[in-house]
UniProtKB/TrEMBL annotation:
Protein name per the record: ABC transporter permease
Native source species: Hydrogenimonas cancrithermarum
Key words, A-Z: Membrane, Transmembrane, Transmembrane helix
Family the UniProt entry places it in: Belongs to the MlaE permease family.
InterPro entries tied to this protein: ABC_MlaE_roteobac (IPR003453), MlaB-like_STAS (IPR058548), Permease_MalE (IPR030802), STAS_dom (IPR002645), STAS_dom_sf (IPR036513)
Residue stretches in coiled coil: none
Gene3D superfamilies in the record: STAS domain (3.30.750.24)
Segments passing through the bilayer: 132-151, 171-189, 266-295, 315-338, 350-373
Gene responsible for this protein: iamB
Keyword flag Transmembrane helix: yes
One Pfam family it belongs to: STAS_2
Signal peptide interval: none
Taxonomic superkingdom: Bacteria
Length: 378
C-alpha cells in the first residue's frame, strides 16, 4: 500500500488553497478523510477556500459522496471556489449530486388536519347560511306575488295551474298506487305474523287503519312526488334559465313568480292532498287483502271494524300534512331551478340537490307534526 498524499494545503493571506490529488477510491477513503481532518484547523479564520481538483486521477461514487459532504462543510461561513475540474470528475459530481442532494420535506403546520377540518366546516356553514338567506328571499318574493294575486284574482293563471295539477297529480297515480299498495302488504304481513302469536288477529285492522292514513301514506306519497315532480320543477326552470327564457320574460315585463312559481306551488298544494287520499284507499286495500289471505278476516269484517274502531281524525291528520309537504317540495324545486346556471351539468346537480333537500325536509316536518299531534293528543 503506497503512502499517497491526497490533500495538501497552501496558505495565501486570508485564502487557503486545497490541492486534491491521487486516486480517490473507497479503499483509501479513511486516509483521505484523515488527511483532510488534519488540515482543517489551518482553515480557521480564512475568508475563502479554493479547491484545486486538477491532481485527481480518478474518483468513485463513495469518494464523491465524501467530497460533496466535505465541500458542504468547508463552505460554511466562507467563500468557496473550485478550479481545474477534470471532465470525468464533473460528470461523476453531477450524477451523485442528483441522487444524494437532500430534498426538503414540505412544511407541515402543526394540527394542519384539524385546522383544515375546521376550515371546511366553517366554509360549509357559511355556504349553508347564504343558501338559507337566498331561500328566505325566494319565499319573500313568492309571498308578495301570492298576496298580489289574492288582491287581483284575475291575474290567477288557471290554465297553467290546471296543467301542473294534471302533471303532478294525475300522471303520478300509477306509481303511487303501486308503491303504497306494496307498503300496505308489507306492513300487514309483518303485523299478521306477530298478532297471530297472541291470537289478536283482528287488531290488524287498527294497525293498518291508523298507520297507513296517518303516517305512511302522506310520507310515501310526498317522497315519490318530491323525486318525480319536485325534480321536474328544478329541471324545467333550469332549462328556461339556460335558454335565457327567464331573461326574455323579464325583459318583456312578465312577473316571473306569477307566471312560473305560483302555478306550480298552487298545483302541488292541491294535488298532493288528493294523492294522499288516494294512497289511503290503496294502502288500506293492500292490508285488507293480506288480512283475508293470512288471517281469514273477511273484507266485511275488516271494513266494519275499520269504521267502528278507527277514528276519522287519523285520516284528517294525514290530509292536513299534504299542503305543507307540497309547499316544501314545490318551493325547493323552483328555488333550485333558479340557481341553475352555465351548463346542462348544473341542471343535474341542482336537480339532485332539490330531491335530497325536499325528502329531508319532508321527513323532518313529518317528525315535527308527529310530536305536536301527540302532545296535543290528536
Amino acid at each position: 500500500m503506497r503512502d499517497e498524499t491526497y490533500v495538501r494545503i497552501k496558505m495565501e493571506r486570508n485564502r487557503a488553497i486545497l490541492f486534491f490529488s491521487g486516486r480517490w477510491q473507497i479503499d483509501f477513503l479513511d486516509r483521505i478523510e484523515a488527511q483532510l481532518h488534519r488540515l482543517e484547523p489551518k482553515l480557521e479564520g480564512v475568508e475563502s477556500i479554493v479547491l484545486d481538483l486538477g491532481g485527481i486521477e480518478s474518483i468513485d461514487t463513495g469518494s464523491m459522496v465524501f467530497f460533496i459532504s466535505a465541500r458542504e462543510r468547508l463552505k460554511r461561513g466562507r467563500k468557496l471556489f473550485v478550479r481545474h475540474v477534470p471532465a470525468e470528475f464533473c460528470r461523476m459530481f453531477r450524477l451523485v449530486k442528483r441522487f444524494t442532494h437532500p430534498v426538503a420535506l414540505p412544511y407541515v403546520r402543526p394540527y394542519e388536519k384539524v385546522l383544515n377540518l375546521i376550515a371546511d366546516i366553517g366554509k360549509s356553514s357559511a355556504d349553508m347560511l347564504q343558501d338559507f338567506l337566498l331561500f328566505l328571499n325566494f319565499l319573500g318574493q313568492s309571498t308578495v306575488a301570492a298576496f298580489h294575486m289574492t288582491m287581483h284574482p284575475s291575474t290567477f293563471r288557471f290554465k297553467e295551474t290546471a296543467t301542473n295539477i294534471y302533471k303532478a297529480g294525475t300522471t303520478a297515480l300509477p306509481i303511487i298506487a303501486l308503491s303504497i299498495f306494496l307498503v300496505g302488504i308489507v306492513i300487514a304481513f309483518q303485523s299478521a305474523v306477530q298478532l297471530q302469536k297472541y291470537g289478536a288477529n283482528i287488531f290488524i285492522v287498527e294497525m293498518i287503519g291508523i298507520s297507513i292514513p296517518r303516517e305512511l301514506a302522506p310520507l310515501i306519497t310526498a317522497i315519490i312526488v318530491a323525486g318525480r315532480s319536485g325534480s321536474s320543477y328544478t329541471a324545467q326552470i333550469g332549462v328556461m334559465k339556460i335558454t335565457e327564457e327567464i331573461d326574455a320574460m323579464k325583459t318583456m315585463g312578465f312577473e316571473i313568480f306569477r307566471f312560473v312559481v305560483l302555478p306550480r306551488m298552487i298545483a302541488m298544494m292541491i294535488a298532493l292532498p288528493l294523492l294522499i287520499f288516494f294512497a289511503d284507499i290503496v294502502g288500506i286495500y293492500g292490508g285488507l287483502l293480506v288480512a283475508k289471505v293470512q288471517l281469514d278476516i273477511t273484507p266485511a269484517q275488516f271494513l266494519e271494524r275499520l269504521h267502528e274502531e278507527v277514528d276519522v281524525r287519523h285520516y284528517l291528520v294525514g290530509l292536513f300534512k299534504g299542503p305543507f309537504f307540497a309547499f316544501i317540495i314545490a318551493a325547493i324545486g323552483c328555488f333550485r331551478g333558479f340557481q341553475v346556471s352555465g351548463n346542462t351539468e348544473s341542471i343535474g346537480r341542482y336537480t339532485t340537490i332539490s330531491v335530497v333537500n325536499s325528502i329531508f325536509l319532508v321527513i323532518a316536518m313529518d317528525a315535527i307534526f308527529s310530536v305536536i299531534f301527540t302532545e296535543l293528543d290528536i
